[in-house]
Amino acid sequence: MDVGATKDMGKMLGGDEEKDPDAAKKEEERQEALRQEEEERKAKYAKMEAEREAMRQGIRDKYGIKKKEEREAEAQAAMEANSEGSLTRPKKAIPPGCGDEPEEEDESILDTVIKYLPGPLQDMFKK
To answer: Which residues lie in Basic and acidic residues bias regions (predicted)?
Structure first.
């Protein structure tokens, strides 16, 4: 029997493999290179975003446009100023059709269910 064949079978079954003595060092160097590339990529995109934001701010200043956060902060401050003297929270607008008509309490749940039953069963419950 060939000794090399049993070695290959051992590798396939998850046995000990012949390890490259520099494999750990090479893997560490590869991981470090990947980490460095990722940092460079993040720095590049952060720089590009800073340039874009500077351009956006120039446009906002030129046309008198406020950032979304500034508008929200001003709206919140206005709401607080309106309700400053009030002890209750500000009223919310009631959508049309909600609470306009009086509720009908005359009809019970049983009557509602009976309406949806077939004819002969309705007659049986009405008696």
So the answer is: 8-74
